[in-house]
Design brief:
The structure is a single chain. By secondary structure, the chain is α+β, with helices and mostly antiparallel strands. It folds into two domains: about 100 residues, Immunoglobulin-like; about 230 residues, MetI-like (MetI-like fold). It is about 55% helix and about 15% strand. The strands form two sheets. A four-stranded antiparallel sheet has the order 1-2-7-4. The chain is elongated, with a radius of gyration of 34 Å. It starts with 11 loop residues before the first helix and ends in a 6-residue tail after the last helix.
């Protein structure tokens, strides 16, 4: 007997539904590409270019014109220069259509020609730092101020071709060589690893203990829960300034208390000396971001069936046994998600460290290095190269996380 086989291909309705689904997803895909993918590709492109801060603006011919009046004479004043100090602009020139109220009467300089009311000037190839200035005598019909305003309103049209460093096909690995050969790279990588790993684990552990404390009914629990959220919702610049003031070596309350108690014999520069500066910014990271872990963990703990704990009480289980064998297995999923998110966010953290120490005293992380390379040293290419290193570090961590750490949690 012949058994009918199910159709292997998709029907017309399924194909239409697939096209409709892709059509509905297309705006989202385009938005993600514009917001995420294109900037990422731009960073990769700039990282292999010897680009400085001054190179972000393409070289161009700059022309400034003005009508100068002196006694009974009037002159058109032109100032031409190359905006770049290094790049050569080929075929440089400009065209200026003069207003009807201005008529040229003087001698026209060599690189220029007059055709009707159109002044056309050709300078050929002009080197970096090129500057030129010439004046042409003119006559004015009517009011002088009106004519000056008309000259200012008719801006010259410039032209010229240049081998722009951001769009040409010249590439270099000098940016990466400079980063990896730098003497401080290993210390920067160590500071980033220490800050990220201990900041992430500390925030999770602090959030777990906070959630365990509030996972029961008692008077004032709502007020205490609100106080727990204060570090996370408070403006970062305010809390960072508070910490710097509190731990100041000269006028800080923390040093004054330690000195009066006899714990230390002299003031401690918490944010200015190694290694306590790195430890302090890590503690600040834990204090500021443990409320996020606390909220997620508490929500998960309150969804656990209480019958298991009642059965454990009847069996005589201790609080530690209930936590280790009942609570912790139920929390592994949310702890894994929080660890992944907090690790990525902490690895990319910039503002906390910059506000507390400015990256000094051994607290210079990779993100701070991006800022210093791009803006302090004015080397945009090197800053982009450090950003590429950050991207691959996070990509490697994500692969390791999903490959090994999250197997048991069903990711």
């Amino acid at each position: 007997m012949n058994v009918p086989q199910p159709p292997t291909g998709r029907g017309a309705l399924a194909r239409r539904e697939a096209r409709l689904a892709w059509g509905m997803l297309l705006p989202t895909i385009a938005a993600v590409a514009l917001v995420v993918i294109l900037p990422l590709l731009a960073i990769f492109w700039i990282s292999v270019k010897p680009v400085g801060l001054v190179d972000l603006r393409p070289p161009s011919v700059l022309v400034r014109e003005s009508l100068r009046l002196r006694d009974d004479t009037a002159r058109l004043d032109y100032r031409i220069n190359n905006s770049s100090q290094e790049e050569v602009i080929e075929g440089a020139g400009f065209t200026h259509e003069l207003p009807a109220s201005v008529r040229i009467t003087g001698e026209i300089p060599q690189p220029c020609q007059l055709s009707g009311r159109i002044l056309n000037c050709e300078f050929g190839n002009i080197p970096g730092g090129f500057r030129e200035r010439f004046r042409i005598d003119v006559e004015i019909d009517g009011d002088a101020e009106t004519a000056a305003a008309a000259v200012k309103a008719t801006e010259p049209v410039t032209r010229g071709e240049v081998d722009y460093i951001l769009t040409n096909l010249t590439f270099t690995l000098e940016n990466f060589t400079r980063i990896f050969d730098a003497s401080e790279f290993l210390s920067v990588l160590w500071a980033t690893t220490f800050y990220t790993v201990f900041g992430t684990i500390g925030a999770l552990v602090a959030g777990l203990f906070a959630a365990m404390l509030l996972d029961s009914d008692f008077r004032g629990k709502g007020i205490l829960r609100g106080l727990y959220l204060f570090p996370y919702v408070a403006p970062v610049i305010a809390v960072a300034f508070t910490w710097v003031t509190l731990f100041d070596p000269f006028s800080g309350s923390a040093n004054a208390l330690l000195l009066q108690m006899g714990v230390v014999s002299e003031s401690i520069n918490f944010f200015g000396d190694r290694p306590q500066a790195l430890i302090m910014v890590t503690v600040f990271e834990i204090w500021r971001y443990f409320p996020l872990s606390f909220l997620f963990i508490l929500a998960r703990m309150q969804s656990i069936d209480s019958d298991m704990y009642e059965a454990a009480d009847m069996d005589g289980a201790s609080p530690f046994q209930k936590f280790w064998y009942l609570s912790l297995p139920q929390l592994l999923g949310i702890l894994s998600v929080l660890f992944l998110l907090r690790f990525i966010w902490t690895f990319n953290k910039f503002d906390d460290i910059f506000l507390l120490t400015g990256g000094n005293a051994g607290t210079r992380t990779l993100t701070v290095n991006v800022y210093e390379q791009a803006f302090a040293v004015s080397n945009i290419g090197a800053g982009a190269a450090v950003a590429v290193v950050i991207f691959f570090c996070l990509l490697l961590f994500s692969w390791f996380f999903f490959r090994f750490m999250s197997r048991e949690e069903g990711f």
